[in-house]
What does this fold into?
Amino acid sequence: MITIINYGMGNLGSVQNMLKRIGVKSIITSDINEIEKAEKILLPGVGAFDAAISKIDELNLRPILTYMAKEKKVPFLGICLGMQLLTESSEEGVLKGLNFVPAKTIKFKFPENSDLKIPHMGWNLVTKKTESVLTKNFTNEFRFYFVHSYHVKCDNPINSILTTNYGYEFDSAIQNENVFGAQFHPEKSHKYGMQLLSNFANI
It folds into this structure.
């Protein structure tokens, strides 16, 4: 059973439908008592960093998420904005992140004459950097669907498990012990997303 956190900013139905397709049971909740019973936690997210952190704090979810991730050590996966929320901070805002992974979220920066557009949108390949249970059976042909204007930069390369090139290399999946993050949308990435979510479900 995977507990999907509902704080008002995420593709909850799409994520739950993809989990259903791979035969994994899930619930969607913002109830602290339900979250405390979670076997695994999935934190989705679409939108702006400060707005998301504000919603989490308004619902008083930061303490229970921190307890589950850092003390109880349940497997914890953030996707898209949810991955960025796992970091210390974001250049998109001024509020503190959850700080589950030693990393920061920064804006894509390209030369003025670059023809690369922001946001980074569409399919792109990933490259394995550090072995992880989350990327079991991945090859360099694995590709995922991205939509984002900011990206994560790990303080220590060991926390980077996948990278992607868009103008330059950035960390597209991260891990710190039991906490994982994926910048792309596995729920929109067909068989590749199914493999990643299956790997998470099987931890």
